[in-house]
Amino acid sequence: MNPEALARSGDELLTRALAFCRALRDERLPVTPARVIDALRSLERVRLERSDEFRLALRVNLVSSREQEEAFERAFDRFWHSVGGPNAYVSLNARSELIRGSLREGVREAHPEWTHTSTQWSPEEGARDPELWLRFDESAPPIDDLARELARRLATRPSRRERTAPQGNRIDLRHSLRRNARHGLEMLDLSFRERRLRKTRLVMLSDVSGSMDAYNPFLLQLMLGLSKALPNSRTLVFSTRVTEISPLLRQRSVAQTLRAIGERVRHWSGGTDIGSALAELNRGVLREGSARSTVAVVISDGYDQGEAGAIEGEMRALRRRVRSVAWINPMLGSSTYQPTAQGMRAALPHVDYFLPAWDVPSLRVLVRNLARA
Question: How many helices (H) and strands (E) does the chain have?
């Protein structure tokens, strides 16, 4: 196919994708302009000849709950897979880079009110209210015990100092002699020594962009649980900007916490800039404290609108500033998932633990994997 035909294919797919977004809005799904922009940008990062990747890229950006996912799947099949329909999905042989040039103009022509003045975020971001209390699932099983176990696996390490213990591999001779003085120094009661556990600072960087909206109930629970398990932990959230919410997670009630976070983090459900978030983390929080006593946890699906080279460079710097790096990707639990996103591929060589987590059962699997590691 010649370049002109390829370009026409790219424009055609963009036009169909915009029509599909309008169809979802007609189905009363909350498809906001910011989500549409993110969805179309994600098409630059997937193989468009693969219908499953195309579907996944749209779904993770346009819906944010199981009910919405079910409605999305029905609408997708009706719109793209209707037999003989004008929008039936076919392999257009359109390369993803062809969409980049026509993305902004195509969106502006289709929806002039969706003015997108920046290549990284929507101007409506500053006024967005994420309404986090509507995303928090109060009926979900508590994860406090699992959060404590996860914190213990990630954020403790043996110290060089030792302490007396009721059992262990080494006998504490001095303490044993004192205990058995009343027995004429016959060794009847032995004391042992073990290495002290040195608590490590946990720094969590969580992706709250539009593509992660479906996992918001679990992420909120995880952040609240880890802040209780490790009071000295630091929690930051990012989309196109980074905001630390560590003090906000220590409110008296969940409702107060979610209200405070919603008022502070106006960029929730925005675009994604992983490289800039990692850069701010490296030059901010991680400049404090010892690298040997810090564990970094990044929670993200890896979809990014920035340069993969920036992510690779910042991940290399991050790896030098911490003891270990754990990357939790909610999409990793899918049997068909492959790390095709450029941002995810750039980060993986510098990750010690690459693990899935999107609900309580998967968090149990994550803890077991860390135990084996």
Answer: 13, 9
Q: What is the pLDDT of residues 305-318, one digit of tens each?
A: 778 899 999 999 99
What SS3 class is residue 111?
Answer: coil
Is residue 245 assigned to a domain? yes
- For the beta carbon of residue 270, count every other beta carbon within 10 angstroms: 27
Measuring CA to CA, which residue among 266, 280, 272, 273 is closest to residue 236?
280
Q: What residue has token string 């990284």?
A: 120
Residues 245, 333, single domain; the answer is yes
Kind and range of the H or E element at 288?
Answer: none
* φ, ψ at 307 (rounded to 5°): -90, 135
Inter-residue contact 170 to 263 (CB < 8 Å): no
Nearest to 330 by CA among 368, 362, 373, 297: 362
Quickly tell me which residue has 């749209």 as its tokens. 58
- Statement to judge: residues 189 and 96 lie in one domain: no
Whole-model pTM above 0.70?
no
Q: Do the Cβ atoms of 280 and 310 come closer than 8 Å?
A: no
Q: What is the DSSP letter of 354?
A: E
d(Cα 29, Cα 141) in Å, to the nearest integer?
27
Q: Measured at the alpha carbon of residue 173, what is the angle toward residues 167 and 175, in degrees to the nearest 5?
A: 75
Range of the domain at 179: 161-197
Pairing of strands 201-207, 234-238: parallel
Q: Letter for the amino acid at 169?
A: N
Q: How far apart are CA 101 and CA 217, in angstroms?
A: 36
93 against 46, higher pLDDT: 46
3-state helix, strand, coil in the chain (%, to 5): 55, 15, 35
- Rounded to 5 degrees, φ, ψ at 370 are -65, -35
Distance CA 243, CA 285 (A): 11
Q: Taking Cα atoms as reference points, which of 366, 284, 281 lies closest to residue 329?
A: 366
Q: In what order do the strands lie in the sheet with 156-165?
A: 156-165, 192-199, 170-171
Q: Mark whether 206 and 354 lie in a shared domain.
A: yes
**Is 229 in the same domain as 279?**
yes
* 340 touches 46 (CB < 8 A): yes
Task: Summarize pLDDT for 23-39 with one digit per residue, the tens.
Answer: 888 888 888 776 787 78
